[in-house]
Write a structure and sequence with these properties.
200 residues; 3 helices; mainly alpha
Amino acid sequence: MKNTVTKLLAHAGIVGGVALATPVVALAEESAVGPDILIPKPAELIPALIAFLIILVVMAKLVWPPVLEMMEKRQQKIQDDLDAAERSKVKAAEEAKSYESKILEAHHEADAIVAKAKKEAEEVRSAVLAKAQREAADIIAKAHGAVDSERHKAVIELSSSVVDLSVEIASKIIGNDLSVEEQRRLAEKYLAEVGEPDER
């Protein structure tokens, strides 16, 4: 800060020296027109220079230090903001990598869940299919058993009907020479012989 004040004072001294050393071309003329209006008169120059130096010293002592301090604070704040932005950028990049790895892991878990669900569904389908086949086989076996039982029952009923019918026919043809029991035995024997497969 002292260096800045010293530079300002030196600059003001150079400007004042140049102004004092400037040759006054037309002192005799008091004209206020033309280029002469820009050249200060020696009587105005010295008080103006003294006033300028006083203002410069007052500004250097009272105004410039707070201004410079404020500028340094502003520069520091900007630098802190830039550092914070860089840290946030690095943190965001790390979080993005973390999120990407989590997303990849979630995809792998989802694929594993889908594969497991497919496997379980296939196992359930196989179990249901095997159970249905067993139940169908049981139903078919029961149906065959029922058919065999009904056929056997029908054969028995038919045999009984045929025997009764044969006895009745035989009694009409032969007459009453044979008893009912004998006629029944004879008919049953005949049916048994007819029911046996032909052996040749």
